[in-house]
Amino acid sequence: MAFIDYYKVLEIDKKATEAEIKKAYRKLARKYHPDISPNDKEAEQKFKEINEANEVLSNAEKRKKYDAYGENWQHASEYEKANQQQTYYNKSGPQEDFNSYGRDGDDYSSFFESLFGNSGRGRNRSQQFKGTDLNAELHLKLEEVYTTQKKTITINGKNIRFSIPAGVENGQTIKITGHGGDGVSGGPKGDLYITFSIENHPNFKRDKDNLYSTVMLDLYKAVLGGEITVATFDGKAKLNIAPGTQNDTKVKLKGKGFPVYKNEGHFGDLYITFQIKIPTNLSSKEQELFTELSKLRTI
To answer: Which domain holds residue 232?
Structure first.
């Protein structure tokens, strides 16, 4: 398999910061996501490479190993252990410089074979290693995570169907075992980590399990009181308005918020803030009546 330069895949410099890596990954992931180009095999392959590159370079420890050992970074500990053993064996005999295998484009595969081949020291050439973990970002609307639902995504040309529990939060990551990269020498597959990016809602602001909304209240209802109907996230509710309700008054609708993650049947609360709507473009009669009212009251 040809060596893939993860820095080139993400179009970044080898000195890129964590923030620059994250920014580059998100930009390219959106561009080549299978949902954007569902029948584009080239884009699909590019998306796979982007995820692999991000998986390694966004992790400080993995990035350090990758910079040192290239495509064989996953076996860095074996290299280092073997290097230490070779140094020990060579103390009383001819010296062999393991650094001659280099880190600037030399044959890492030959180095690996020299360590784990039939060297007569009892090592198994088919030693197994777990495959690379993959990362993916899934964009959803807030209403899509209000109820538990099934979702299918395409990773490396394979459709993966899984459940998204109601109440999952923006930025939350879940693991799907065994859907990462292939293992080495028959080792287990890596895992797939999916991070959720949830869009804001135009009418409701979410804070964990609670929701917040603003309701415009006409002046007459605010002054005289009465009943109004307000929108909740999953329907409507009737509210009694007390006479003399002030601007920015807040009320709580218990249990009308967002579902509690993995706690079926439990919900947060909905907090409503009233904004008094002052009438404009008054008729001459209305102006006259408001003037009369103003003379009836003293501050």
So the answer is: 205-296
Task: Tell me the C-alpha distance between 228 and 245, whole Å.
Answer: 13
> 266 pLDDT band (50/70/90 cuts)?
very high
The angle formed by the CA atoms of residues 286, 290 and 296, to the nearest 5 degrees, is 150
Higher per-residue confidence, 207 vs 104: 207
Reported confidence tier of residue 87, pLDDT bands at 50, 70, 90: very low
Identify the burial level of 9 via C-beta atoms within 10 angstroms of its C-beta, where 0-12 means exposed, 13-18 middle and 19 or more buried. Answer: buried
Distance CA 204, CA 254 (A): 15
Give the model's pLDDT for residue 100: 35
Q: Which of 198, 216, 250 is the last residue of a domain?
A: 198
Domain identity same for 148 and 209: no
On whether both 246 and 148 belong to a single domain, the answer is no
Q: What is the pLDDT of residues 40-71, one digit of tens each?
A: 888 888 888 899 889 889 988 888 888 877 77
Please give the structure tokens belonging to residue 262.
């993995």
